[in-house]
Amino acid sequence: MKTSRLSRVIQLLTALQSGRTYSAVDLAGILSISRRMIFRDLNELKKIGVPCSFDKKLRGYRIDPAFFFSTPTLDSQEALGLLLLVHKLQNNIRFPFGNSALKAALKIESELPEKTKRFCHNALDKIFIKTDSQETLELLDNKFSQLLETILNKRILTFNYLSPTEDECKIENFCAYKLVYSNNAWYVLGKIQKDQKIRIFKLNYIKELTMSDKYYAENGTFDMTDFFGRAWSMVPEGKIYNIKLRFLPEAARTVADVQWHSTQKVSFQSDGSLIMEFRVDGLNEITWWVLGYGDTVQVLAPDILREKITKIAGNIVRQNT
Fold it and tell me: Domains of the chain (ranges plus CATH)?
């Protein structure tokens, strides 16, 4: 929902919240917009679950008063922080229950003091966040709800899994521990009872979830930090490598501005280049990160990483000549 329309929807909510019944003409006059836009904004409210209805007897629109609640006292920055998450950052993460979050925000906004409300609307109009590339997730809310239910109730799960590089397979007796968001996608992490190994599955490749009537005992010793260890992103491979890279001056400052890994060490050189070092568990994930910097990065160590990069780069050249 764009900010300009968002402001109108909040005004619409504020008017209807009073308990009075307004005709479309009344609402158009209050907001200084056309009846067509009023109908569009009313439909916007209905889409996200706001109980807005037309009272035939009173010939006007109203919202069930039970929809609203008394908002805790929030100062301007607290309110803006909350609304910023819902209205702006929500588009940067494929967020489950997005409509529910938006509906909750609308409830809160409608109850804010007028001064705080004006501050938030003006601030949101001046903030723009460019949306990153996001993985398309089919039926995210349903899939997320099912997995969350199995985790909360410690129920054993069965599902079909179809990854880009493998045929579809059936995963049985899976004990889901955590839902994880990383690299612009959602994953479920858990253990298959048969081999007792921790596995990670991408939600987008999970099909036909079935929750059994069997329960699993909670693993009280499992720790996410320990599991991810020094993996570059999500998948530890069981071997630590000392990575040493040199970035050319044109990329050096941009790369140094980000804390990419907990073991990161940076050192600027007299020519403006940057030496960056890591201790990383596994090479597969960091290989693709390095390739993303093209000819602005040089692998100084280890040799095996340099060889992987060279081989992939060579394949790219051959496929494009």
Answer: 1-132 (1.10.10.10), 140-228 (2.30.30), 240-319 (3.30.70)
Answer for the pair 230, 262: CB distance below 8 angstroms, yes or no. Answer: yes
Token pair belonging to 251: 């990329």
Q: Which residues contact 196 (CB under 8 A, 6 or more apart)?
A: none
- Residue whose pair of structure tokens reads 């706001």 in the numeric block: 50
For the CA atoms of 263, 269, 271, 272, what is the dihedral angle to 10 degrees? Answer: 40
* 128-135: long-range pairs with CB below 8 Å, 24+: 129/88, 129/89, 129/91, 129/92, 131/91, 131/92, 132/92, 132/184, 133/184, 134/92, 134/93, 134/94, 134/184, 135/94, 135/184, 135/185, 135/186, 135/204
CB 25 within 8 A of CB 60: no
pLDDT in tens, 227-270: 888 899 888 888 999 999 999 999 999 999 999 999 999 999 99
171-183 pLDDT tens trace = 999 999 999 988 7
pTM: 0.66
- Inform me whether the pLDDT recorded for 76 exceeds 80: yes
* CB neighbours of residue 216 within 10 Å: 19
Residue 25's pLDDT band, with cuts at 50, 70 and 90, is confident
Structural tokens at position 288: 């693709």
